[in-house]
Amino acid sequence: MAFIEVTRIAKGFAAPRHARGATGTRPVLRDVSLSVERGEFVSIVGAMGSGKSTLLSILAGLTPADSGRVVVDGQTVHGVRGDASFVFQNYSLLPWFTALENVRLAVEAAYPTLSREGQVARARHALEQVGLGDALNRRPGQLSGGMRQRVAIARAFATNPDVLFLDEPFGALDALTRDTLQQDLVRLCSSTERPVTTVMITNSVEEALLLSDWIVPMLPGPPATLGAPIAVQLARPRSAAQLAHDEEAAHVRAHVIATLTAALGGRARRMPARVDAGALAPVALASEESR
Amino acid sequence: MHMMLPAVGVGLALVAWWGASLRVPDLPSPVRTWEESKIYILEPFVKRGETDQGIALLAYYSLMRVAQGFLLGVVIGTPVGFLFGVSPLITRMFDPLMQIMRPISPLAWLPLGLVLFQKSEPAALFAIAVCSMWPTIINTMMGVRAIPQDYWNVAKVLRLSPTTTFLKIIVPATLPFIFTGYRLSLGIAWLVIVASEMLTGTPGVGGFLWQEYNSLIYAHILLAIITIGLIGFVLDRLMGLAEARLRAV
Question: What CATH number does the domain containing B74 carry?
Answer without folding.
Answer: 1.10.3720.10
